[in-house]
Design a protein that fits this description.
57% of the residues lie in helices and 22% in strands. It is α+β, with helices and mostly antiparallel strands. Among the domains are: 42 residues, no CATH class; 102 residues, Band 7 domain (Tetrahydropterin Synthase, Chain A); 50 residues, no CATH class. It comes from Coffea arabica.
Length: 286
Amino acid sequence: MGQALGCIQVDQSTVAIKENFGKFNDVLEPGCHCVPWCVGSQLGGYLSLRVQHLDIKCETKTKDNVFVTVVAAIQYRALAEKASDAYYRLSNTKEQIQAYVFDVVRASVPKLSLDKVFEQKNEIAKAVEEELEKAMSHYGYEIVQTLIVDIEPDVQVKRAMNEINAASRLREAASEKAEADKILQIKRAEGEAEAKYLAGLGIARQRQAIVDGLRDSVLGFASNVPGTSSKDVMDMVLVTQYFDTMKEIGASSKSSSVFIPHGPGAVRDIASQIRDGLLQGRIDEV
């Protein structure tokens, strides 16, 4: 009924294009308007002033010959004061924006390596936005925001990059493990050296204590028993030590049978053999 009487309603965030006999006449703001068709006035169409979103995928090649797909998100809107340009001058806004995005992306990305593309995606988005703003402002559109939301290399390239990263981390882990093993071996060698040093000190002190004890025993026995010399006492000590050693060998479960001469004269022979062996050892050392 309203249209029959020439009354139309324009919704919020929308403008209407009024024509008179097919020629642009006016831009109608949101609200109720009278468009008398009887005098040649008519409604040309509606134009939304809301921010619109457009995702664009552009395939291109980087400087190091890697094919990537760049995904750009464009947010734009028509300007109310340039509604006639936005309505009449462009037949397909989305294709026009896509053409400009392709042009800028394919001119910028080939100058950069793959790593640089990821690092400088904000610069690429800024270049796209500047070019779109300069071009689309002549057609009554404003570029609100331009984002590079994704950079997708070829599947094989992504797999190779992951393998390179994994190999690098494995190499680093192997280096750290080798360094840890090296430190462990050094510490173990230091511990063994310290243990051997302390064991040597213990053996040296043990032998010194044995020598001091033998000396005191020989001197004490010679002074308390008249008629005995230090040589006699030393022979007795050597024989005692010899039989103690034989006793320990016999008590061992892994020892073999040992045959020694037995008798009063054998004791002196044993002492002589021990003494001669010690003297011979000293001569060989000299």
